[in-house]
Amino acid sequence: MNTFGRNLRLTTFGESHGKAMGGILDGMPGGIKIDMDIILRETARRRPGQNHLVTARNEKDIPELLSGLTDDMITLGTPIGFIVRNTDQRSGDYGEMAKLYRPNHADFTYDMRYGLHEARGGGRASARETLNWVIGGAIARQLPCMKDISINAKIISVGGVEGTTEEMSAVVEEAMKRGDSVGGIVECVIDGIPAGIGNPVFGKLHARLAQAMMSINAAKGFEYGDGFSAASMYGTQQADIFTSKDGRIYTKTNHSGGIQGGISNGMPIIFRVAFKPTPTLLRDIETTDKDGNSRILKGKGRHDPCVALRAVPVVEAMSALVIADELISQNIVSEI
Amino acid sequence: MNTFGRNLRLTTFGESHGKAMGGILDGMPGGIKIDMDIILRETARRRPGQNHLVTARNEKDIPELLSGLTDDMITLGTPIGFIVRNTDQRSGDYGEMAKLYRPNHADFTYDMRYGLHEARGGGRASARETLNWVIGGAIARQLPCMKDISINAKIISVGGVEGTTEEMSAVVEEAMKRGDSVGGIVECVIDGIPAGIGNPVFGKLHARLAQAMMSINAAKGFEYGDGFSAASMYGTQQADIFTSKDGRIYTKTNHSGGIQGGISNGMPIIFRVAFKPTPTLLRDIETTDKDGNSRILKGKGRHDPCVALRAVPVVEAMSALVIADELISQNIVSEI
Amino acid sequence: MNTFGRNLRLTTFGESHGKAMGGILDGMPGGIKIDMDIILRETARRRPGQNHLVTARNEKDIPELLSGLTDDMITLGTPIGFIVRNTDQRSGDYGEMAKLYRPNHADFTYDMRYGLHEARGGGRASARETLNWVIGGAIARQLPCMKDISINAKIISVGGVEGTTEEMSAVVEEAMKRGDSVGGIVECVIDGIPAGIGNPVFGKLHARLAQAMMSINAAKGFEYGDGFSAASMYGTQQADIFTSKDGRIYTKTNHSGGIQGGISNGMPIIFRVAFKPTPTLLRDIETTDKDGNSRILKGKGRHDPCVALRAVPVVEAMSALVIADELISQNIVSEI
Amino acid sequence: MNTFGRNLRLTTFGESHGKAMGGILDGMPGGIKIDMDIILRETARRRPGQNHLVTARNEKDIPELLSGLTDDMITLGTPIGFIVRNTDQRSGDYGEMAKLYRPNHADFTYDMRYGLHEARGGGRASARETLNWVIGGAIARQLPCMKDISINAKIISVGGVEGTTEEMSAVVEEAMKRGDSVGGIVECVIDGIPAGIGNPVFGKLHARLAQAMMSINAAKGFEYGDGFSAASMYGTQQADIFTSKDGRIYTKTNHSGGIQGGISNGMPIIFRVAFKPTPTLLRDIETTDKDGNSRILKGKGRHDPCVALRAVPVVEAMSALVIADELISQNIVSEI
């Protein structure tokens, strides 16, 4: 339940307000140079407090790599253990909340599942867990076979507004002013994957990507290629006609989103993930306590007006873990 | 890759035009009465050739249960092996196709993956594999703990038309006349699940459902609760306010679709799966052969104008396998 | 629990007196010619009733391969499903036993575990299950990478007598005459494995072999290389000194039994498995019924005087599955 | 490969001379009070340098628990991450060795497997890894269901001498004086396990114990109950006759070692593990370098004259992990 992957496996731990986050990345081949700057760049991208649109919680999030590497940062083929200390523990912020069920949070369901209201800011349900994933993904991205594969996610819609960064930022700012939050859609394009990566039946590449993306906090939907719009189309509209150039077979269009029958076809893999608005609001909201008594939850604390913004590097990291796992499973490690 | 589930595991085999389909359902507790009629009812629902809207391939699809049961059909707690003979092998139909890459099929990607063009009608990529899933699901549904859980899927949209069965049927018939196919959306409601079922982090209930649904042939998208529309909404619109009645806490609305933080909250679980139009068309279509030469693929053979129609019992079966696995994993076997 | 292996996985089903035994071998690469005669030869080796020293139960044990192969018996890379019908069901033989706990059998422990006294001759606890393993192993042995690897098991001791086949046979015959049974030791030598196969930590090659061998019915002990006698030795006696010839490094002695640190060193892998005497005796024996009442269990039914004899092909089959899994996991499929 | 267990899983990392050892114990239920003193007691037991019979390497080995616990040391049901800093890194000791293949060490096989001669004192092959296992086991032992289960391992033989602690110590001291090492046998008794724990087929309790024990450094053999001596016995000698007292059914003898058909029968579980002499000697020894040139390896560095001595708490820890995993898998968490 805390392990992701098959031949490249990330196992994680850490409560958001406990001592540390951390994980073990098992399955990285030996002999690979790891660049710490790439890890730091990725963790910085997901860090809260970077600008006024994301929460003010300011943690350093500097991972310490404890094993699996020589002093020169060459992988040994052994598991890479890492930790990130939680330096900014403000559990007091959550005092009042600890007694109430926050709407759309996991407080109520965790309580039903474990019979225990974890007081440390939501524990494993917190988006802080995704820091572990970003570290794992930033290491996985450095496999030689991943060098020519680009993974680029971006926000394409906020609160229903598709447009320029300025327009989407305006929607977020406006929501923030009202103490409200807003949803968004992240699109990810993975380019450079050769044809033939993935598996049929229960190991379909898009099913693995779906599971990975739906694991991200606040994700409500996943689609690839034409996605939901394919359900409104006819077969003749949707056919990706094969053609060839210089001996390479490819499709003229990419309705399929780069995957057919669960296996990559050499075209760019394209998928979208829908994120709901952050459930934490800076407004008072009605709820109940554990005994079912009606209560008012005061809006306060740190707050992301649009989690979709912070999900962008997480979508990329989880993509990297899935793709790297598939490549390793098919014994592709060297540069493609 | 051919195994689904954790503590209730379905492992399957069978090429669509080979000798038999089959599987092993491992993890069913002992002492449970299995009703063969329920299995036959479910396999009948997914069988092609039931009416003029689905393909004419007429197979009996009568599973033979080979183990795991007493003569009185009581489970022994041992794995249940089953097979279904393929009685209607018409591999000749696929002679021409075997040399060409059918658009949107897995021919090309399988060839890239395995270096082998499986001549038996697509082999494991065929939707016939879902027969195994329906059998597995039909057994899983008979767990006592599943008795009060209803799993109901239905088509809610065909070719973009949401409406009555008559209206949607008209869209399919019209597509069929033109030798075309059409996409559709299946919605599934799982009711009766108690709060507290599922897991955090990488074992989220909706992520497992997503993986299960995206494993179904032709699935292009998955969403639960408000799904993609949540990305256009504000937090204040989307909050599921907790309230209580007679000591039972529940939410006034169900934007969350019955799952929060990966764990059920006691409300109905609602999700939707988008299916693309069948790639097999009864029309000539442009493509290439394995050497990249431009060719025309003749439209012929058996053909489902709308795979979404046949996906309905498969969506239910995969839901049953996921839910039963979760309940068994949480040691819930007896009636809830 | 009914699946063995990691990248080459055998999942099995079948009660000894149910309709059929069977399994699914998942992970065999495509393009490999399978010789049915090798499978039949191996199943014949383990079949009871071959000579007067093993039980008279005479079943044909002809497996039917249902998937994963072309008509020309070339693997497709898809799972290979197989079944073997149980033609010789004599459950009546076990009528009396069904009410009593047979000493050293699994009757009592199954009852404690599952609360159910499986009446079909012991169900999954029966050695008949090993037929599935022999079929799986006989297929695995046909991987090109296995061609130059010899796996040879033989009885080296019966009832404490180490000697020629005649001497050991005499011990078995003498036990049989008395309605008694006798234990034995099987030694297996795997030759031709290149250095570098296996894993450290929890995936050690000898630990996997140990688990595989201890899964065989009646196995009581496993040792490799010097085994238990190493515990009586000094380091200076036990050191396998490295030397080289024509550039190939090897050890002068093989105290290590071909494995160091869980990884093969290129020397023959040698291990031994101790089997206890068959618990079924042709003599009356004291026991209790399910209520704890003292009873006499009449000696009758079919009976193997020395299960170690029949374990020989099973030891080889399980070795083949372990080695093939390791080679596939290290992406070694072609001839070495 | 670095994960052990099914529903209680220990994943570990750490090279013996790297920055830290550590692991994640996933699957511990919530609400359990953890006593740090028990963890420290167990790590102290396995620590080198306790007396003159074990190596002088003196590390503190104080684990830091980073997650999964409240401040009051109550488990949260979330994964427990832990690390132990390596404070005594003397990699210089291994300078000469790094160029030579030490006999009976994993140097050569790791080189063949990974193409990389890990310079940090053997890396993952080092017995220091078992520190992680002892920590995991010390936590697992604190499950309420484990409270009345005693797990006691002890040395029963050193260099072939079975006797009192004094006699066995004399053998070790004598070997140490000569710069030699000596093997030994550890026997473990697990008492208090109820009948019905374990699984048939591939999940047999003794097969899991065998795999666990054979994972320990220097283990060469495993046997349970009568073990190898059962191979010299007749069925009539070996039968564990059932009897009953006050309604509880048990066996008069315990040849079976507490397990029948892979499932516990309520009698004490008894097994033995054979350990070879430490391969590191304080004497010069012949070997080759990586190019196959004949060389002399100087005896120096730290050195355990009898690893079996230090294996005792490791045998207990691995037993605790196996038993706790089985109990959790059968949903037994509370006191038995």
Task: Please provide a written account of the structure.
- The structure is a homotetramer of 336-residue chains.
- By secondary structure, chain A is an alpha+beta fold.
- Chain A has a single domain, classed as Chorismate synthase AroC (Chorismate synthase, AroC fold, 4-Layer Sandwich), CATH 3.60.150.10.
- Chain A is built from seven helices and 17 strands.
- Chain A has a five-stranded antiparallel beta sheet, with helices on one face.
- The longest helix of chain A has 23 residues.
- At the C-D interface, strand 1, helix 2, helix 5, strand 10 and helix 6 of C face strand 1, helix 2, helix 5, strand 10 and helix 6 of D.
- Strand 10 of chain A pairs antiparallel with strand 10 of chain B.
Concise account of the structure shown:
Chain A has 336 residues and is α+β, with helices and mostly antiparallel strands. Helices cover 24% and strands 24% of the residues of chain A. At the A-B interface, strand 1, helix 2, helix 5, strand 10 and helix 6 of A face strand 1, helix 2, helix 5, strand 10 and helix 6 of B.
Please describe the structure with a list of short key phrases separated by commas or semicolons.
four-stranded antiparallel beta sheet; five-stranded antiparallel beta sheet
